[in-house]
Amino acid sequence: MANHKATKKDVRQSRKRNERNRYYGKTTRNAIRDLKAVTDKAAAQKDLSEVIAMIDKLAKRNVIHKNKASNLKSKLAKKVNALA
After folding, report:
1. Domain CATH for 50
2. How does residue 1 score in pLDDT terms, banded at 50, 70 and 90?
3. DSSP per residue over 22-81, as a string?
4. What's the CA gap between 29 and 11, in Å, rounded?
5. Are 40 and 56 in contact (CB under 8 A)?
6. Which of 8, 9, 15, 84 is most exposed, with minimal Cβ within 10 Å?
7. What is the dihedral sign for C-alpha 7, 11, 13, 17?
């Protein structure tokens, strides 16, 4: 690592961003896992909108690719709609 002020600042910023992105990514993965475990359709519909918002935020922040976000949302919607 170079000993320039700007480089040191960039390292601090990237570390902070990385931790934040890991936190949001892990939180979203946990929410997806919990949504998949739900068996009641009404509860799943309510949770689905929250999880979709979380996925959209990840895509907006470039934590995940927009196509991956789209695929996740599609699969979750299919799963929720298949519930009895």
Report:
1. 1.20.58.110
2. low
3. HHHHHHHHHHHHHHHH---HHHHHHHHHHHHHHHHHHHHTTSS-HHHHHHHHHHHHHHHH
4. 27
5. no
6. 84
7. positive
pLDDT (tens digit per residue) in 40-83: 999 999 999 999 999 999 999 999 999 999 999 999 999 999 99
pLDDT per residue as tens digits for the range 4-19:
999 999 999 999 999 9
Cβ atoms 27, 40 nearer than 8 A: no
Backbone CA torsion sign across 25, 20, 54, 34: positive
> Which amino acid belongs to residue 65?
H
Number of domains within the chain: 1
Domain housing 39 = 5-82
